[in-house]
Description:
The chain is mainly α and about 250 residues long.
Amino acid sequence: MTKADDRKGAAYRHTAWRFAPLVVIMLALAATYALGWHRHLSISGLAESRAVLKAYVDLHPVLAPALFVLVYAVAVAISFPAASLLTVASGFLFGWLIGGTLVIIAATTGATLLFLAARTALRGFLRARAGERISRLADGFEAGAFGYLLILRLAPIFPFWLVNIAPAFFDVRVSTYVGATALGIMPGCFAYAYLGEGLESVLLAAAQSGQDLHFRELVTPELTLALFLLAALAAVPILLRRLRGAGSS
C-alpha cells in the first residue's frame, strides 16, 4: 500500500467519523417512526394516560423528572416532533414552574447535542461553497450570533429542529448557542407548561367523551402574538446596531 493510499484511507475514516453522529441521529429518528411511536403522542393519548402518569410522578418524585428530562432531550436531539406536546405534559405532570424548568434544561441539552453533531459534519460546508455575498452574510450572523439566535428561538414561525441545525453552518461558539437557546425558549416553555398545568379538566372531559383533541386547539392566538412580540423586541438592538453602522459608513 502506497502513502497516497494511506492518505486516502485516513481521509475516508476522518469523513466517516465526522458524519457518524449525524447518521446515528437520523437512524434513531427513522426507528421511532418505524416503531410507530409518533402515533402515541397526542393530547388524546395524554388524556388516556393521565392517571398512570400522575401516579408514577407521585411515587417517584426524583426519578420521574430525571426520566422526563432524558426522554425530552433525546426527542429534541433526534428532532422527533413532540416538543410542544411534551412541554404541555410537563406542566400537567410537574406544575408550570418545575415543568417549564425541566423543559428548558432538556430542550437546551438536546438542541446542543444536535448542534454539535451537525457542526461536526457540516462545519466549513457553507464557506467552502459560498460566494462573497454568502460569506458576508455568514460574517454578519457570526458577529451577532447571540441576538440572531435569540430572535430565531423566540419567533414561533421557525421550526425548532431547523434552528437547532442552522447555526452549525456558521462559526457559532457553543457557549453562545447554549445561552441564546436557554434564554430564547424560556418564555415559550413556561407559557406551554402553564397551559398544561390547567389542562386537568380538559383532559378529563376528553377521556370521558372520547373526543380527539389536537394541540393546535389549545394554543391561543394571544399566546402566538405574545411570542412574536418578544421576537420583535429581541430584534430591536440588532436593527439599531445596523442603523448606526449604516449611518457611520
